[in-house]
Amino acid sequence: MTDKQPSAPACAKTPPSHSGVTHVKERLDGNFTVISNELLQHPELSSTAKGIGGYIQSLPEGAPVGIKALAEQLPEGEIRIASALRELEKYGFYSRPKERLSSGQVVTRTIWYNRPRRAVVEAGRAPQESAAVPAPPKAPAPHHKVAELLAGLRAHDSRLLLTERDVCRLGPSVTEWLDRGVPPTVVVRTLTTGLPQDPIKHPAAFLAHRLTTRLPPHLPDAPPPSVTPPRPDPLQTCDGCDRAFRAPRPGRCRDCRAPSEQAA
Fold first, then answer.
1. Phi, psi torsion values for 66, nearest 5 degrees
2. Is 113 helix (H, G, I), strand (E, B) or coil?
3. Where are the domains of the chain?
4. Residue 159 C-alpha from the chain's centroid
5. 3-class SS at 94?
6. Which helix (H) or strand (E) holds 215?
7. Any idea which architecture 37-125 has in CATH?
8. What does pTM read for this prediction?
9. What HEC string does 134-150 produce?
10. pLDDT digit string (tens) for 38-69?
11. For the chain, where are the E strands, in sequence order?
């Protein structure tokens, strides 16, 4: 009697891995929580944030999840819990929006998302150029005469020693004085006389204050040149009727001139 041959070969068992983790899975019929890998395997979240996020996911609706409430239930302190909640809020799992009730009272709601909010995820993927704070524009280099004026102030008092950056910042203020017709010697005298006896800790700020508070007004506009009215022609005696008339040279008056002369 021959042995029975199975119609299909038996499924081969996967040999256990000796290099990675081996899962021992049992069927769970209750007391379990479904958690998205978007939380547990998030590349930016810390382990503390992932653990606290998983704990919040396991709580029933309406459970308190404030910092103090979580600190009473978890071994982490309030500082670490607060930091983890900020991470979870940053990546769209947790939010605390404010809401105004019909009575006018403002309350804070706590919302947990089992998957990160799409708007937060897309905002994190967007380029960050707009969030970057632009560097303040660099002050233009002053005219060499202005730079020499400011750099030379230390020769009058060593407390007025300025850095190259200070010279660039103060250059436009000195230029404004010169544009208003103030001679450079007057600008230097204004900045170096009457100095306090105490040490000048911030010479650039001190000079900037003087340049601003003592700025003279613009010179008044020069009056327009006077226009000399044209002098009248001298009086002449008519050669025909001896009547006086004005003309640039002697001759006949209008009445005595011949028609041909008048036409000319």
1. -75, 175
2. coil
3. 37-125, 144-213
4. 33
5. strand
6. none
7. Orthogonal Bundle (1.10)
8. 0.41
9. CCCCCCCCCCHHHHHHH
10. 888 988 899 999 999 989 989 999 898 888 99
11. 94-95, 98-100, 106-108, 111-112, 235-237, 244-246
